[in-house]
Amino acid sequence: MADDALLFVLPERHPRLGAALAEVGELECAETPAVSGWLQAHGMSASSERVRILPAGAEVLVPEDAERLPVPLSEEETVRVEQACAPRSVTDMEAELLAFRNTTQDWHALVHRALTAGIPAPRIAQLTGLDPQDIVLAVSD
Questions:
Q1: What span, in angstroms and rounded, lies between the C-alpha atoms of 56 and 138?
Q2: Distance CA 62, CA 11 (A)
Q3: What is the model's pTM?
Q4: Over the stretch 25-72, which tens digit does the pLDDT of each residue have?
Q5: Same domain, residue pair 43 and 100
Q6: Domain check: are 77 and 98 in the same one?
Q7: 130: exposed, middle or buried (C-beta count within 10 Å: 0-12, 13-18, 19+)?
């Protein structure tokens, strides 16, 4: 094992720091009883967006009130964590925003098709994350 990384629970309503544990792929340390017990003690699952990881040396970024746990990583795991925590380029971010726009551009038609197929509006809201009021407005258009 190489460096220690730091697992932490990001406080609610705090800007995202590091990478979500689930984002970096399988880590050997995540399967240990220590990490499982730590997650359980804080009422978290490894797939929670609030369970974050930072590579060694980045501990100063962790909020003071965050629950933390140092974990060992192999060299390969350290590289994956560092890559997942690296800032994204503006170009990558703009490409993601364009993809989002293209995906959501015709959401009214998608909602109409779903309603026509018999999917109830509350289920559409649950699956899409759309506000139920927006679904009602889309139907009335």
A1: 48
A2: 10
A3: 0.61
A4: 899 999 999 999 999 999 999 999 999 999 988 888 888 889 999 999
A5: no
A6: no
A7: middle
